[in-house]
Amino acid sequence: SCLMPDTITATSLDLDAALVRLGYSAFRPGQREAVETIISERRLLLVAPTGGGKSLIYQLPATVLGGTTLVVSPLVSLMHDQVAALEARGVRATFLAATLDPDEVKRRMSALGRGEYQLAYVAPERLAFPGFRGLARDLDCPLVAVDEAHCISEWGHDFRPDYLQIGDLVADLAEARVLACTATATPVVRDEILARLGLPADTTQLVRGFARPNLGLRVQDARSA
What we know:
With 225 residues, the chain is an alpha/beta fold.
């Protein structure tokens, strides 16, 4: 039997065993803190370099929380590769993108509605489809992860209008945890990410790499916002 959402804590889950099941022998610096934060605090903005292991921060919780984790990503090649790697480890995963045959999309959507996947990667343009949004609202979704989250910011160098719909998805799935991941975000962009996702200004921000190789914490005082 799975734990009720409000009783789940990082200490009630065996994160090390889950890590091994995913094929890793140890956490990289900062990864355990990020996983524990998203599980316990339910909201996290993670800034880490490309290749810094951000995908584990949503993949691992997805395997221990139950239900179907949704990952919004603009990179079809990344979705394809990560789904293949997860399936090789026995994790039930899929992706939805415009590159798929319509009949295949329909098949995967049906399986998604039946709760057959632990992770489902979704291209941002898919959020415009009422059929998908209706399906998502009925999911048992413990976590929404937004990859390349800087694409939601009009101040970012890679703004994508499709990303503006993610805030509505987050609002629809009010009980889900929310993780925003990016490798490139100034403080201004990070604040806009939180605002557009409908997350509190005091959401924990973990910043790794770049000028500060250690784990950094930035909490904005709501009174100064």
